[in-house]
Amino acid sequence: MADNEKQFEADIESYLTSEEGGWEKATDAGYKGGFQYSADGTFEENYALDIELLCDFVKRTQPVAWALFEKRCKSDPAKKFYKAFQNAVDMEGLVNVLRHGFKHRGQEFKVVYFKPETGLNKLSLANYEQNVCQCIRQWHYSPRNNNSVDMMLAVNGIPLVAIELKDQLKGQTIENAIAQWMTDRDPHEEAFQFNRRILTYFAVDLYKVAMSTRLLGSKTIFLPFNQGSNGAGVDGGAGNPQNPNGGYVTAYLWENVLQKDKFLDILQKFISYQKETKRIILPDGKIRTDVTEKIIFPRYHQLDVVRKLVAHTKENGPGHNYLIQHSAGSGKSNSIAWTAYRLASLHDAENRAIFNSVIIVTDRKVLDSQLQDTINGFDHTLGSVVLIDEKKSSKDLLKAVQDGKRIIVTTLQKFPVIYDLVGDTAGKSFAVIVDEAHSSQTGDSALKLKMALADTSEALAEYAVLEGKEESELDAENDKFLQELIAAGKHKNLSFYAFTATPKDKTLEIFGEEWPDGSFHPFHVYSMRQAIEEGFIMDVLANYTTYKTCYKVAKNTPDNPEVPASKAMKLIRRYAELHPYNIAQKAALIVETFREVTQKAIGGKGKMMVVTSSRLAAVRYFHEVDKYIKREGYDNLQVMIAFSGIVSDPDIPGSEYSENTMNFDEDGNRITESQTKSVFHNQGDILIVAEKYQTGFDEPLLHTMIIDKKLRDVKAVQTISRLNRICPGKIDTYVLDFVNTAEDIQKAFQAFYTETSLESEINVDLIYDTQKKLREYKVYSDEDIETVISIYLDPNNNKKNNSLQSKITNALLPIADRYNNELDQQQRYEFRRKVRSFVKWYNYITQIVRMFDKDLHKEYVFCSYLAHLLPGDEVDVWDLGNKVTLEYYKLEETFTGSIALDKDVAGQYEPATMKKDSAQQGKKSPLEEVIEKFNDHYAGEITEGDKILIGILMEKMSTDEVLRKSAQQDGEQIFVNSVFSKAYDRTTMDSFKESREVFAALFNDPKKYVALKNALAEIMYRMFNQK
Prior knowledge:
This protein is an alpha/beta fold. Helices cover 43% and strands 17% of the residues. The strands form 10 sheets. It has a 7-stranded mixed beta sheet, with helices on both faces. The chain has a 7-stranded parallel beta sheet with strand order 16-17-15-18-19-14-22, sandwiched between helices.
């Protein structure tokens, strides 16, 4: 048994040094030759490479440059070449020097040659074959000790990969290998210094692999480098499956990653160096610059998905769609960057570029410059990455497409402006990478993207056959209607690569793979379950607390007016949610949760996000949290806010609030909207948001989330997943939810915990049923449609958008009149819904299939305009005013613990269907009845004991003349914080002595004690001032 580990080592070496493995077997003698000593035997320097081998490689592959270098050297050219090489590494980093070479006194040197994309460059191919790739066992890396690393891989004498191996049969595991890297390998050694020699460190045993790119002693971070329990790209958990060939479970590492050609491919096209510089303003006004550096080595699922996408594309060419379901926080941005770079340089078997351009489409307003930097870092000769962000126009996008820029990053919304200006795309192919693919891909903008880029020659041929005409008889170039018909469906020159963590049903049908049973599935899966089990993301449901907010409102008007029931219910609910007392109680809980939980997390760096239901709620929370912080003397807490636009508080006449005017840094300087993220990261503690930062916000220090908003399905997963980013010292997260139940959240997350699929395709023909039902209202006829279409297709109108709009709206006037005059309110409501549903449904199905139904398309164009001209019925303006009052209020904890997800339950959608008819909510009810229904739903368990307690305290304090005078003479702040606080403490204690049973619960619940104090202070201040 003593030789098991050596056998494991020998078997790996045997594969790597085989003809298939591609590496040469070698010893570390040449690397020991890099240990430099003086004449008297004193150690001077460790080259940490085989300089003789490196010089020999340069001499063989770059003889002219080497000859000139030698000629310039007066002595010891090997030593001087080392100095030139090392100077370049010190300045640019090893990754850059490996990828791009370096210059010395005007001469350019390459230290490694990579395989060219095509076989046309014979010299580059010959140079690639000249690389000397060595596999060395027991590498002695330092003259300072006799330590050795189990295995090292070097290219042209430069050590790049180091591996520590452990064997369970000998009683050791991967954990021992990780501990060895962290404790027995000094990161200051020349061989282990960041971005100077070894780029990747592996810890390997018989069943698992872990990887790191930087040694930092005990702070070194090793990440799992496993396939997943069911294999890479397949739904499963952490770990690895059995080897199908009967070999070692971890053989994929040396066979798929470290095999010579595959590793050099990773070195050229995956490994990247990232540097982030942050300027921090110190309290004394000085500026500190913090620099964060890291080397990115692809995680196994990233490497696997890019390789599989590239292989499938190379074999099948353009014209396919791919859906990639990768969990939030799994590194999708890097996966997209690697995919874009590979596709942009991909050639077929005939050495022809497969795509003219790769277009990355994102919904993000602020496009990720890191994406651009990552791609640019791979190959300076590839050509510029064009970023069409909000500072650029659609004309810039048009120019980039027409110029054939290799990689273009833009938003989907810019395509409707240019779709008819791109020109002929016959013979051109495009790869479209969709970041966060969702329902936006089923709208008009997505159709316009296809119209801009699609080679419709094949679709035109199909249409000609259906029409019984020759293609030459069809004027597709000038026939706008025909262009729209043939742009539908999939096209042979367009490939879509859609990345998302939460695929919806429509996303699955548009981009997913159809299996033989008719169901639709992602092309590649890295599930939330696997990401959590591997420790790549946090389990955000592990510590979850839910509260039920219990209200009871009372009618505050002598009459009982008839009111619009649905609207009144919403207004009453909003009244309760925005009531100062409600927000004050929750604000106190928010701040105290931050102090007790968040502030102690991540080594004191933890941050909190508060998710609110509206911009007004966010503003009120901001003020109430800030007020509570000041009242309690928590001067070290900083609260910030994030929302779009300007909001006014109806209770404060003339008020106007915006993110720009409400946020300040620690020094009192106003913060712009663009600075919110960075200031929150560096200084902020609590961030209150309204419809902002709930997607795409990457803040690893975010530990706690407070939710005061109804969240459903994808929105729930996206929002709460803001907490899932890992960082050193982050061992857990915490969610406090005032609105959603544990069951709601469990249902939302379960759908995306494992692979998500679609049961079967939609019934496209359902749209004809909607078309038929629309006609039954007799609001428009075939003649009306033809009138609008003739205007729409008139080339003179199309040249002048204003003319087109005015003529079509004029033609639709009789239809609008019939709608208003001949339908009752319920019919108008149903008709509006059907028109909008018809337009939306048609947009969706034309992403999937080409209908070639001219009449249907005409009706779609007609309804697209009509939908904008159908006004909703006027509703009774009903103001809640002071018709109700908040009588009782209670926050009740309903759940605390871990929300468990089932790994055996997969999320599967049923095919989408058209929306069914529903009645418009126009019923009126007496106000008292509405209030009763509200209380039935929201009052919760307000105990009789609570009511008695409140009544006793109010009765006693209402006769307190000191309180009355303070309320009428002093300001509210003095009354609440000083006079009332003392009176409350005194009265409750006296009451407790009189009735221990009633008041015992109050003294046993500190939160209830404080909450009741705050509530009564506000109520009694108003009461005293009304008398």
